[in-house]
Structure formats: C-alpha cells, structure tokens
Amino acid sequence: MTEQPNWVSEAWQQVTQKVNRTSKTIGANFPHASENGTYILAEPHWWTAGFWPGLLWLVYQDTKDAALKQLAEECEAKLDTVQNEYYRLDHDMGFMWTLTSVAHYKLLGNEDSKRRALLAANLLMGRFNVNGNFIRAWNPWTEGEDNSGVAIIDCMMNLPLLYWASEETGDPRFKSVAKRHADTVLEHFIRNDGSVHHIVRFDPESGSKVEALGGQGYSLDSAWSRGTAWAIYGLTLCYHYTKEAKYLETAKRVAHFFISHLPEDFVPDWDFRLPADIDSPKDSSAGAIAASGLLLLANQVTAAEAPVYKRAGEKILESLFRNYGNWEGSEEGLILHGTSHFPDGKYTDNPLIYGDYYFVEGLARLKGYKELFW
Is 154 a catalytic residue? Predict the structure, then answer.
C-alpha cells in the first residue's frame, strides 16, 4: 500500500463496516437511489445494475469476505437474463458488465465472467453507427420515439469494456470503435472552455450533427456537473488505453473547468452554470466520479502536473467523507445529497448507488489498490 492521508484509513473502516451491514439487507439485488433510508431496487436491466456488485468487489479485494464475493457473483448471474432477452440492452452494457464480469475476471480469473464480458463487448460494438462514428445511447423510451441518432457523454465510461476486449482477444476492432466514438466526443461534446454537452443528436443516415441538447443540465448552454465528471474520467481512460495525447489534453481541459468551478466544500452543485436566482442542489455523485477520475489523471500526467489533480481528488473525497457521509443509523446509502435527474424531479437530494461506488473506488485508489476494473 502507498502512503495515504490519515483520514483514508478511518473512511475505509467506516465503509467496510457499513457495507457489511447493508449487504445483509440489500442482498444480491440492484439498488439505485436511497429514499427514506432504504435503497430502492431497480430491475437488472437498468443502467445502474453494476454499481452494487462493483462496490462489493472493491471491498472484497481488501477484506476477502466470502459473503460479499457470493453476493457479487449472484448479481452477475442475474444479468444473464438481461443479455439473453436482448431487447432492453442499450449502451450502458459497459457500466453493467465492467463492474461485474470484468471485475470478477480480473480479480479471480473466472472464465464464465470473461465470456459474459466479451459477449457484452460484442453487443456494445453492435450499437456503433458507422455513418456518424458514435455509439447509439438508448432504445426508444416510448412507442414511436426515435433515439437512433442520440449519443450521450455518459458513454465515455462504457468504452473501457471495448478497450479491455481488444486487449483480451487481440482483436483491434473493439479498440477502433472506442476511439472513433471518443473522437466524436472530442469534436462535438467538449466546448472550448472545458464544459460539456450532455446529449448530441446526429442524423443516423448521414452521420451529420443535428443538435446539442441540454439533457440533464439546466439548459442548452449550461454545464451539468456529472456530465463533466464522466468526461474527465472517460477521456483519461481513453488516454490510459491508447496513449494518444489528444485524449489527455482534453481530459486536463475538462478537469480544469471542473476544479475551477468547485465551491468551498469541494463538492459540486448539480450544474455549474445557472442563473443567479436558481437554487441548485448538490450532486455528491458528480464529485465522487470526478475524484476517482482525477486520481487516475494524476497518474497519467507528468510529476510536475500530478499534484493539481491528486490534491483536488483527495479534497473532494475527504469532504464527501466528513460532510456528506452517513456512517451510523439505518440509512443504507453511504454518501448523502446526490442529484439523479433534476429536470425530471427524480431523486434530487438522495444517496445514489453510483455516488457510493465511485466514492469507494476513489478511497481504494488512495489506499494503493492498482487493479482498475475499467
């Protein structure tokens, strides 16, 4: 283990103790947002299905608790039905199978997990639009809706499944698709100042850009903080796998925008660019995602640059622990004050399972764990 701030050991102890408790109530299920102290369980096809088993694997790699391992394996097995039914699969296969099957395979060499992850990578690659060089995000939410030209910034975190598949199989097609999608993000999603569009719609036939959409941000021109966090982490991972400088330089630009807009407590509001009369809730999940990405970014840049990103990641995580953590009582969530979807009024001040996951991932990185599930 590497040298770590004193608070990290305390935070990790609190996490492991609480996960041991909550695992007995959550079980092999798929929590999404905590409401009134209890995690609401989602269906296995929902995009957040990988985060609870991923969190279990993070703790297991330290404690070797067989009960946590069993729950993670049971969650992974439940996702077989989702793969086999096919119709509910969208681009978030990366979120789902990276934190279940890839994690399981990397930690324990499970061959069934490798097979599941490679199948998911093939299915994800099948969503690539060759005309527009993007991975289609969603299937229609309602009958008659056309999402065939929609791509979103969140998908940057699905690309590592493709990079992993190329490395595992020696087949460059997976990596090529990931890079071409990432290049589209560089061209159409990242503004000059480092802020990020959530959604871009393309003509699925010609591949030309039609429009940028506000999505989960306040407006077309705003800066949704979680989208910014997805970009920091996803672009850094692209550099990690390709060593192409354009991804690193853009990750740094987005990171500077994010860091420069953090408030005094280092935990971002839901949107960085709001009218003065709008009362913005916090999004602790955006902070956790960005912190984990910033710590990885610190490992990719020069030694002179690294402290800028490492210190920011540490400060975010420490604030989440001290000011947003819930370590006692019956609340199942770890980190309070997440905002899932403010424009739709969904879970605007709640613990969120992905906030919990990335918080624990960031702590694991500070503790010196080098295994990168992504």
Answer: yes
- Please name each of the domains of the chain with its CATH number: 6-367 (1.50.10.10)
Choosing from 62, 65, 90, 92, the catalytic residue is 92
Q: Which residues of 58-79 are buried (b: 16+ CB within 10 A; e: fewer)?
A: bbbbeeebeebbebbbebbebb
DSSP per residue over 4-50, as a string? --HHHHHHHHHHHHHHHHHHHHH-SS-EEEEETTEEEEPPTTSGGGG
Confidence (pLDDT) at 240: 98
Segment holding 202, helix H or strand E: strand 199-202
Cβ contacts of 204-213, under 8 Å, gap ≥ 24: 204/129, 204/131, 204/132, 204/136, 204/148, 204/149, 205/131, 206/131, 206/132, 207/129, 207/130, 207/131, 207/132, 207/133, 208/132, 210/149, 212/188
**Cβ-contact 174, 165 below 8 angstroms:** yes
CB 200 within 8 A of CB 135: no
Residues whose CB falls within 8 Å of the CB of residue 277, separated by 6 or more in sequence, listed in order: none
**DSSP classification of residue 323:** I
Q: Please report the pLDDT score of residue 141 as a whole number.
A: 82
What is this structure's pTM?
0.97
**Distances in whole angstroms, Cα of residue 335 to Cα of each of 206, 224, 324:** 44, 20, 5
State the Cα–Cα distance between residues 132 and 135, nearest whole angstrom. Answer: 9
Give the tens place of pLDDT for each residue, 226-274. 999 999 999 999 999 999 999 999 999 999 999 999 999 999 999 999 9
State the Cα–Cα distance between residues 311 and 64, nearest whole angstrom.
Answer: 30
Token output for 262: 């953090």
Among candidate residues 90, 154, 269, 283, the one labeled active-site is 154
* pLDDT, tens only, 65-111: 999 999 999 999 999 999 999 999 999 999 999 999 999 999 999 99
- DSSP codes joined into one string, 272-292: SS--TT--PPB-HHHHHHHHH
Q: What is the pLDDT of residues 82-94, one digit of tens each?
A: 999 999 999 999 9
Q: What's the start-to-end Cα distance of the chain, in Å?
A: 20
Residue 344 among the catalytic residues:
no
